[in-house]
What we know:
The chain has 217 residues and is of the alpha/beta class. It has 2 domains: 20-99; 102-181, Winged helix-like DNA-binding domain superfamily/Winged helix DNA-binding domain (Arc Repressor Mutant, subunit A), CATH 1.10.10. The protein has helices spanning 72-85, 104-114, 124-130, 137-145, 172-181, and strands at 20-27, 30-37, 44-49, 67-68, 122-123, 158-159. Strands 3-2-1-4 form a 4-stranded mixed sheet, covered by helices on one side. It has a two-stranded parallel sheet with strand order 5-6. A hairpin with a 6-residue loop joins strand 2 (30-37) and strand 3. Helix 3 packs across helix 4 (137-145). The longest helix has 14 residues, at 72-85. It is globular.
Amino acid sequence: MGHRRAGASRRAAPRPAVREWRRAVSTAIGAVVVFWRGDPAAPLVTRICLPGESPPAGRGRDCAPSRPKSCARIDELSARLRAFCAGADVVFDLSVVDLDRCGPFQRAVLRAEHGIPRGSVSTYGRIAARIGHPGASRAAGTALARNPFPLVVPCHRAVREGGALGGFRGGAAMKRRLLEMEGIAFTERGRVVPGRYHYDTAPRRVRGTPSKRKERR
C-alpha cells in the first residue's frame, strides 16, 4: 500500500473573513445605505444601496456579515449624501469609493459619468465614445446599471439618445426626481428636453474590452 504525500490530507486553513460595515443615511429621497470596509482613518465604500434596494446577496465567502458602524469620513460622506438628496450642488470625491472592485471599462465609464456636472445629462453612446469605445453604448449602459456607487457617481445623469430616461436602480420616478431637482426639464412625453448633451462624440483612447455591438440600452 502506498504512502500518502505529506500534508495531502491537510485542508487549507480558512482565510479570515473581511469585515464590512454599513451606515444608514436618512435622506429626502429615502434611506440610503453605505457599505464600507478598511481602516476608519481611510475607509473605502464598497457599495451604496438606494431606497428600496435590498442589500446585495452573495457578497462573497470571505466577507463577514455587515454590522452598523461609522467613522469620521463616512459621517462626512453621509452628510454630503443628505445634502445632495436635498438638492445641494455636491461633487463627491471618488477617492472614498473602492473603484478597484470594477473592471477597467466600468471604471472608465464611472469616471466619465462622474464628470457630468449638475444640471447636465449625457447619453450612453456619448459616454462610450468619450472613453474611446464608440458604438459600445449598450456596454456603457450595462456598466452604469451595475454602478456600485449611485449618487456619488451620478448615473442618473445618463439617458438614451432622444432623451428617454433609460434604466436606473432606484426606478424611473426617482431618476426623474433627481434630474428635475438639478434643473433638467422634461417634455409631456417624459423625455429630457432637447439641449446640448455633455460630451461630444469624439472618442478618447482608454483601455477596456466591452462589446462593440451598436445597440442602445
